[in-house]
Amino acid sequence: MTTTSPGRAPTIRAASYSIRLDRRAIVVGCALVLATLLASVLTLATGDFPIPPAEVIRTLTGGGTGTDSFVIMTLRLPRLTTAILVGAALGVGGAVFQSLTHNPLGSPDIVGFNTGAATGALVAILLLKGSMTEASIGALIGGIATAMAVYLLAIRRGVQGNRLILIGIGIAAMLTSVNWYLLTRADVTDAQAAAAWITGSLNGRTWDHAVEIAWAVAILLPAAMWCGRGLRVLQLGDDAATGLGARVEGIRLASILVGIGITAIAISVAGPIAFIALAAPQVAHRLTRSAGPDILPSALTGTFLLVAADLAAQRVFSPMQIPVGVATGAIGGVYLAWLLSREWRKGRG
To answer: What global pTM score does this model have?
Structure first.
């Protein structure tokens, strides 16, 4: 059942559960979906074997020639689908952690989770001589272990956002040194493979990678949206949230587990792609102007940012392709510098 009141957003009610619909967020979401679709068609249409956009759409709907079908369905679409889902996962992970820490710098990029995942992958590649599949498993273990270490070290009468960020930055610095040590001790061939992985790349991604991240998004995105209701209450402060009957530490722990899980799986599939988790929630918040963690808008923003970045990485320097992590890192570095200066000015004010 949907109810509306003059001047207020419509609300969907079912039994004791209700969802408030934000009109601006809906418009922004539709715009992001449209922009992602346009970028996706360009990604599928361009390359060494160009295909007209009309033929791309015809092939996706079951028509097209055998050659077009092979190029799109076998070579290009698995990579694009992986980019769409990894971008959504990173956007969700960033939104959860930034909401938990009440700080735009509280993203997996900054607090060491990406670095820990890279350490796990490097151990698998360089020390255990594992395959890329084993590197993905190592990244998953490394990211989760790092996140739990940061969480446990940050606990002292509850997890405070600034303390979690500072501890995460310290652990990230330590693990960065470990990563460089591992690279310097490896032979040239293994070091090249490891360096390519930790840059963050979508090259060579297949339907197996897309299916893996699809399961993670299908399970953990709804879980993150459910946690978002609790995170919205936590924005009032721990005392106020407790007064309203919220189980503060339970909400926080559940949110951390969801955020860790979806981020770690995304990294295990595509490597530690930089700055999507940092930027997507901030861009989504500025577009929607809504209170709360903006879980779904952040997912859609992350999807668009990664698809657009991968399109640029493949086509801007054509015929040479660069890893998408290089593109997001270059853009994200500028964004991070702006964000740091903005937070510094706000602190001085």
So the answer is: 0.86
